[in-house]
Amino acid sequence: MARIPEIGPYTMFLRNTNVNRSQPVLIYNNRYIAYYRMLSYIDSMSYYLSNNLGINPGDPGIIIVRELPEFIISLFAMIKAGLSITIIDPDDSYLLIDKIKSSRITIASYDDYEKLSDFGYFIVSDSQFSGFRDMILGSIRRIKHKDTKFSNVIYSGKGSENFEDDSMIKFIRNGHEIKFNQRYIIENVFNINYSMPKMENRPYIKSNVPGYIPAGFMFSIMIPISFGATIINGKSDRSYDFSFECMDGMPFYGYRYGLNYIYYYFRDSSLAVFRENSNVFDMFDYNIENNHLSVYYKDITIDLDDYFYDDLKIRRGNYIIRSCREIYPDFILKKLEPCNIKPEIIINGNEIEMIVNKYDYKCIEDRLSKFEMPDKINVYE
After folding, report:
1. Please, which domain of life does this record's source organism belong to (predicted)?
2. Is the pTM of this model over 0.85?
């Protein structure tokens, strides 16, 4: 049996920076970074890590970073420099600063800051590292003692008053500083619909899952870059006239009109959508408006003689939640539990009515009436 070659994250990113002569980009908070420009930034950071800060292949490092562009750039720069990387959820960073202060460990000139979010990138030298390893391991549950050996710590953040610019990224080791300014790689988007390159046969992927958690690393980073898709992340006041192939869903099963079923779980607990073969939903599209999502079903007839739906609920006019208890009770109920959904029964005699965005959907006499929806789907963040 032929062996499937393993491809690392950086190699995959490198191969897809310029796919099909297009320019896949990361759209983040109304700004964009083209993949190839990110690559240039990654190369520069990696070079300085290896040559100016004396990082050696195999040296361990920690990443604590919240913003997706900085996360991608710093992660791939560290991978290229050969560091052994541990990723820490920034929500746990307050545990670190308490331990740093109590242990009287000096970190460059930032030892008097109250929050780790005030720091720039820094690397703690070996002479400052005494006791720091056990301190971190005792504070962060995600790190196992047996699997981790630390000699350096890398932290990323922004917003410090010591920065000349809020978008500055800084590496510090033994008093030696290297600064990077994101203004040279991040540009304003004038009109996404007009200025974005055409991306035929390749999707835009929308995800607000943080990149520093495992699901976010998969859905916000690896899935998009694996086939040169455009990533849309963060808040935006732009409108996008296209459909997404996948969204915040986790886990991600099948494909949009693909095999067996698709299950979407949205982190804001707004929606769970199930598609099982073609028995239930033949086709669906969705619309996002003000961070709410609606699902549109086109020309569907559902025979309720065979499939009994005892839960049907519409929330705030933009959410559709449907569970099919009698068909797949174990599977569906388990998948609905993370959403904190408590379905309500809305039945008037033999009629079930739901109103979504001023469209009426009625289930009368055990059959769901057919209806037409607009062809154009506008997507808003």
Report:
1. Archaea
2. no
pLDDT tens-digit profile, the chain (381 residues)? 455 556 677 888 887 776 655 667 787 765 667 777 777 778 877 877 787 677 778 776 667 667 788 788 888 888 888 877 767 666 655 555 555 555 554 444 333 344 444 333 344 444 444 444 444 444 433 333 333 333 333 333 333 333 334 445 555 555 555 555 555 444 433 333 333 444 444 566 777 777 777 667 777 787 778 767 778 777 654 444 333 333 333 222 222 233 233 333 333 323 333 333 333 333 333 343 433 333 333 333 323 222 333 333 323 222 333 333 222 233 333 333 333 333 333 444 444 333 333 333 333 333 333 222 223 223 222
CB 105 within 8 A of CB 126: no
What is the number of domains present in the chain?
2
139 and 281 belong to one structural domain: no
190: phi then psi, degrees, rounded to nearest 5:
-80, -50
Structure tokens at 14: 């490198």
The verdict on 159 and 266 lying in the same domain is: no
Structure tokens of 290?
Answer: 């003000």
Domain hosting residue 46, numbered range: 9-184
